[in-house]
Amino acid sequence: MSGGGRPRLAVFKLASCDGCQLQLLDAEEALLDLAGAVDIVHFPEATSRSEAGPYDVTLIEGSVSTPSQLDEVREIRERSRFLVTMGACATSGGVQALRNWADAGELARAVYPSPELLRSLETSTAVSDHVRVDLELPGCPVDRGQLLGALAALLAGTVPRLSSAPVCAECKRRGYACVMVVRGEPCLGPVTRTGCGALCPAFGRACYGCFGPSRTPNVASLLDRFAVLGLTRDEAARKLRLITSWSPEFRAALREEVPAR
Amino acid sequence: MVPLASCRKAGEPATFLREHRERKSEGTEPVRFMDRPAFGRLLAELARRGYAVIGPTLRGGAIVLDHVEGLEDLPRGLGSRHGPGVYSLLRRDDDRLFGQAPGPDSAKRFLFPPRERLATVSRPGGRLTVDRAADGEPPRYAFVGLRACDLQAVLIQDRVFLGGPYRDEPYEARRDGAFFLAANCTDPGQTCFCTSTGTGPWCRAGFDVAVTEIDGGMVAEVGTAEGREVLDAAGAREASPDEIAASDRAVRQAADRIDRRPDLRGIGEVLYRNAGNPVWDEIAERCLACGNCTAVCPTCFCHDVVDTASITGQEAERSREWASCFSEEFTHVAGGSPIRASGASRYRQWLTHKFASWRDQFGVPGCVGCGRCVTWCPAGIDILEVLAAIRARDGERDHDERHRTAVR
Amino acid sequence: MSAAIAMERLEPAPERPPADVGLPLRVATIRRVVPETPDTSTYWLTLADPAERARFRFEPGQFDMLTVPGVGESAISISSDPAHPERLAHTVRAVGRVTRALGALGSGDRIGLRGPFGRPWPMAEAEGGDLLIVAGGLGLAPVRPAIFRAMRARDRYRRVVVLIGARGPEHLLFGGEFDGWGQWMRDRELEVALSVDVPTDDWPYGVGVVTTLFDGARIEPQRTTALVCGPEIMMCFAAHDLVVRGMSPDRIHVCIERNMQCGVRLCGHCQLGPLFVCSDGPVFPFGEVVDHLEAGR
To answer: Which value does ipTM take for this structure?
Structure first.
């Protein structure tokens, strides 16, 4: 990575719940290994140490949701050699991007007694909508194994292997009977990117797409199938309107279903 | 330009798959009968011999294959209904153990597991050392209740993993240690078509014991000396002519109930010459490219080889995991784009491989007529309908294909 | 049904082929890294085990699977002289995960190596006639061992013509050694012609795609064997051009690149119609693959 010494790692947070950073903090032994392999120079959740940069590897959690975050993310980019966004918020705008589908001002007036105090952007968006991102790790939260694997690969001088296959690939490897075929559950697994370990189907639940779209997903066909399973078009579309609704692929599919705002 | 047959390598693969053949009438091996307690003793005998007994069992609303300890783990009195993208269990009015058609799992899950470690690499003191993954002795599986289609699928995977110029040692170790108590099929599913692929419902080869379940117990044929020993240990008596006749009738009736009879004559050539058929594009509109069909297919063998490292970089391992030709990354070439970028090309690859190029590679088609790819397709695509559509529209070409031909 | 059945058990074949799943993964030491173009370098390797080193042989056109531990494995053609298999060159463009990780390594580092794999160029079959070698870009690497082989057995071939194309002079492989190598080729009566798409002001050779060199190559189709290596589209154009000039598609050999993860026809990724590119190829007579390539398989 860098010329001498251990690579310098920084962790930042934008609009998010901290869940992705917790994946790192909860990594226990692996975290100790990581601390030995890199120099953690900025990670407010873990250490009071804070250095201004430059950073060899920067992890960002959270979406760009306020004007100050927009400035911050540009600044971080300038100080970072390799920028990694982690989690659904940072890679697709997150659950808070649901406001992108509505009138943000109207929502603010409905929720807050003094909406004029809010400094918020109209939309919640992925970091990569604003600056160049070198690697995106999806998930809500990000998968710990995938995160550590990605850091291991970066330390080895390459980029990690992140499969773009759908959740079904891992679901079938693990031997879970398909919840859609057996129980008629509307499952987003066929259009959602693998990486979670097929966590929801493991408990007999349908995938709700928190890892965002797989590569070239056939969302239209899946929504057709949901209709066959008895969902109205609106109910089917709502399945997409949750955590990664603002990902380009799901957004495009929803635009087909719902008239543009 | 060159007939496909000439594309075969010199040095044909060693033959593992025997010819299908009718059961012969000569010989002196008696057919046996086991009542329920005797069958229970047989399961115990397999365990006593050190086998991990694998059989059908109920989990997640489906019949899956898993370790079974005894009779109580087998699905008693359960039937199954199958349709495109639809599977359900139903209560039978008897207490049959093998009264359902196969669920999503086949022996593949055990003989060619979804993920396995191949090697470990470490760098002690900067040196590089490589070890074969040593996870102890390979497991010895005894499969109980595999239907004819799944037995045939094992023989086909033998050709893939053991019949070519390179042999797959991890597969071989598990395969060599395996025992097969197969079951002639008496309750086919509605998506089954093994009578058209010539792979069922009778088990014809590759078993140690083959049973047919009838009222009151199981009629058992001996396939190997070990099979005979196991039957002896279970106290299986000689079957009566009535019992044998009942077992024969049960399987014949199963064959008659299989009403899906696709026209598979010359299907390989039909598929080869229809690479540009617009049917592929039409199917791709529905196909989710999720790979469920390849995962449940008992013969699909494609896999990824995956290396991972510890954070410190001192330890690394190589493993392999099931992969699917439906994923875009499957044909990705470094520095380029995927060879099969469209969903249509990937669907075509899968079906053409199963029914055409598989035959050129391994001497038999890759389909055993189990119908799993139809049942477990979340989009409900029926490959028999796709095959019929291609045949019906034989020779139709899409725009791109016409263009390619014109410029050639 | 009778009361008796035939004894039937699938027996293992009497002779089983060699085991080669993931192993043997040999350890190789990087001896030298020679930058070739902005994104391509040649890695000179020796096997760490002296006995393995002494035993190793390869044929022109074969490839190795190179492992960067913990990162992955990549199929790379051997680009050095088969008369000296104790030192192995692999010319690598850093475009994938593994090849980029390789870029972070240098002299003294150790990697894994399996091989050699694949069907080689038909050097024996071509004897007695003319040899036409056509290379585009990185495609020069897999045919380079064939050039060495032809030079060392020069009397077995009539004319040996080497046509090399590249995007620009700076993308020409083996440029550092090219003057010496080129002279050596000419000393052994190899006819060499170069062409680039985008020349520099002082570029003294041809301009245009490599097939523009065909006219000056005085190809005699009836007695020529062609070895063509480069991007797939270039190989298809070159091969079609040679067919139009009267060559049989079965005497035009191309080297196909596909995703290969095992090298031993087990992983399924490299299928091209019924062919496994890793072991039925990567070198194929054009006639054997043209239909599959054009069907987009």
So the answer is: 0.92
